[in-house]
Design a protein that fits this description.
Structural class: mainly alpha
Radius of gyration: 24 Å
Number of domains: 2
Strand order of the largest sheet: 2-1-3
Strand content: 5-15%
Helix content: 55-70%
Largest sheet: 3 strands, antiparallel
Shape: elongated
Number of helices: 7
Distance between the termini: 48 Å
Number of strands: 3
Length: 239
């Protein structure tokens, strides 16, 4: 059982630290993603706290990864890890089932994951953490309490310091298309030989109390003022 526990701890710890560091590179990006969820749920009053929540979550994610590797006070932190992962799984699951959130921002703008990919990742992560949670009494700390506390204190200071730095300046690694040095007009041009998206415009009109749908090239032969415009939408046929 020792080997599976060790492997699980390494996988979870490294993943949490890696995910937290990528988000720490651009805490504003995560705050915008939080605001997107708040917008969908109608929690507009939380928008003002998005950045603070983003920074706290990022710091906790990095600290949690270090704790898993150290194994210190794991009985307490295992509960926090489990709750955090369940929360992440709920958010990514909601994004998949509702279709209202396309990307969950798990790895920031540097590694794009769809909501479905993020949900699958969180399901696997939840399984690993449940395994650690069941056998949490067998996890032993690597160092003595003083060393563990010192490492965690340094981790917390580092987590908030790097976020403060990028907020005052720019992301250390800028993964956005409009980063400094990029020619925006040039980046907006269609690549040579690229095939544009193919879409079909569909109109929805109301006639005699019933909604009628038809595409732009197939207007009804009797189309007249009795048709009242309702809406239009574009359907992607070929990306």
């Amino acid at each position: 059982m020792k080997i599976p526990l060790t492997i699980s701890r390494i996988l979870i710890g490294v993943l949490f630290i890696f995910s937290g560091l990528i988000k720490a590179n651009d805490p504003l990006g995560l705050s915008y993603k939080m605001q997107e969820f708040f917008e969908v749920w109608g929690w507009h009053g939380w928008d003002a706290y998005a950045l603070a929540l983003s920074m706290i979550l990022i710091a906790f994610e990095i600290i949690a990864g270090v704790v898993v590797l150290l194994g210190w006070q794991f009985k307490i932190f295992s509960w926090l890890l489990l709750l955090l992962t369940i929360c992440f799984t709920f958010l990514t699951g909601y994004a998949v089932l509702s279709g209202k959130i396309k990307e969950c921002g798990c790895f920031g703008d540097c590694i794009k994951l769809t909501a479905k990919d993020s949900f699958i990742k969180d399901l696997v992560l939840t399984g690993l953490i449940l395994f650690l949670f069941v056998f949490k009494n067998r996890v032993r700390p690597i160092f003595n309490p003083i060393v563990n506390i010192a490492i965690l204190l340094f981790t917390a200071i580092f987590s908030f310091s790097i976020q403060s730095y990028v907020l005052k300046h720019l992301p250390i690694i800028d993964c956005l298309p409009y980063k400094v040095g990029n020619n925006i007009q040039q980046k907006m041009q269609m690549p040579a030989g690229a095939i544009p998206d193919s879409t079909v415009i569909t109109f929805v009109y109301n006639r005699s109390g019933k909604e009628v749908e038809f595409t732009a090239d197939k207007f009804p032969a009797d189309f007249d003022s009795t048709y009242t415009f309702v809406r239009r939408y574009d359907k992607l046929i070929r990306k």
